[in-house]
Design a protein that fits this description.
The protein has 252 residues and is an alpha+beta fold. It is built from five helices and 16 strands.
Length: 252
C-alpha cells in the first residue's frame, strides 16, 4: 500500500470531514481534525438499526465516537484507524466513559481487517476508498448485515435508504446473499424445476423452467418470487435455498 493511500485513510476517518488531502511528497502536511456531529453519529446508528448484542466495525474511526456510541446502545464495537494518536485518544475516552469492555480500537489497515463477524459496518471515507472497499464488504460480510456511509455512496451499488441528517447525507445498504446462478428446485411432491437467477447486488431477475419469474426480491438472505401465480419464499445459503415446501441446490 502506498503512503498516499494510507494518508487517504487518515483523512477519511469516520469522524473527519471530507476534506481535500495532499499526497506525501517528502513531508506530510498537518490535516485539521473535524469531529462528526453527534446527531449524525446517532442517525447513522438509527439507520443501521443497531441493537444490543450486535457487533459494529467502524472503518476509519477517528476519536472513536461511533464505536463508543454503539457501545452505549449495548453493542460490541471495534474502531479501525491508521492514525496512532487518534487510536490512543479513542482508547482513553472509552476508559473514561467506562466503555472499554464493549468498545475496542486498533491501529490497522482498512483493507486487511476482517469484517466477517460484523453486523454493521460504518464508514466516513472518500469515494475512491468506498469503491475499493465495496468488493470486501460484499464478499466478507454476512447476508443481512448493514453498511452505513456518511457523505458518500457506493457508486453503482444503489442504497436502500438515504437520509439528510443535520444537512449531511447518510446512506444505508444491506449485504445480499449470493443468489445468482442456476439451481435445481425440488418440490415437496418430488417434482423438479430449473431456477436461473441473474443478480446485480440486491436486484434479481430470472427464469423458472424458462418462464420469467415475477416480483423477485432479495433482502439479505431472504428470496421471494412468483411463478404463474405461485409465490416462492426461501432463504439463500451457500449452496442451497430452503423454502416452505421446496428446496433448491446450486448446479455447478
Amino acid at each position: 500500500m502506498t503512503d498516499c493511500v494510507r494518508r487517504t485513510f487518515i483523512l477519511a476517518a469516520s469522524s473527519l470531514a471530507a476534506l481535500p488531502f495532499a499526497a506525501r511528497a517528502g513531508a506530510e502536511k498537518d490535516v485539521p481534525y473535524v469531529p462528526t456531529p453527534p446527531e449524525v453519529v446517532q442517525g447513522m446508528l438509527d439507520m443501521a438499526g443497531l441493537t444490543a448484542g450486535e457487533r459494529l466495525i467502524d472503518l476509519g474511526s477517528g476519536d472513536g465516537r461511533i464505536p463508543r456510541a454503539a457501545a452505549r446502545r449495548g453493542a460490541s464495537a471495534l474502531g479501525v484507524e491508521i492514525d496512532a494518536g487518534l487510536v490512543a485518544r479513542a482508547r482513553s475516552l472509552a476508559r473514561l466513559e467506562g466503555l472499554e469492555e464493549r468498545a475496542r480500537f486498533v491501529r490497522d489497515d482498512l483493507f486487511t481487517v476482517s469484517l466477517r463477524d460484523a453486523d454493521v459496518v460504518t464508514l466516513y471515507l472518500l469515494p475512491d476508498v468506498n469503491e475499493r472497499l465495496k468488493p470486501k464488504l460484499l464478499s466478507e460480510m454476512k447476508p443481512g448485515a448493514r453498511v452505513v456511509s456518511h457523505a458518500f455512496d457506493m457508486g453503482d451499488w444503489p442504497p436502500e435508504e438515504r437520509r439528510e441528517i443535520a444537512d449531511k447525507r447518510v446512506y444505508r445498504w444491506t449485504i445480499p446473499a449470493i443468489a445468482g446462478g442456476e439451481w435445481r428446485l425440488v418440490r415437496a411432491d418430488g417434482s423438479t424445476a430449473t431456477l436461473a437467477i441473474d443478480q446485480r447486488y440486491s436486484r434479481v431477475t430470472g427464469t423458472f423452467d424458462g418462464r420469467a419469474i415475477r416480483d423477485a426480491q432479495l433482502a439479505g438472505a431472504a428470496l421471494n418470487f412468483t411463478v404463474d401465480g405461485t409465490a416462492y419464499r426461501g432463504t439463500v445459503g451457500d449452496r442451497t435455498i430452503t423454502g416452505d415446501g421446496w428446496r433448491a441446490e446450486r448446479i455447478d
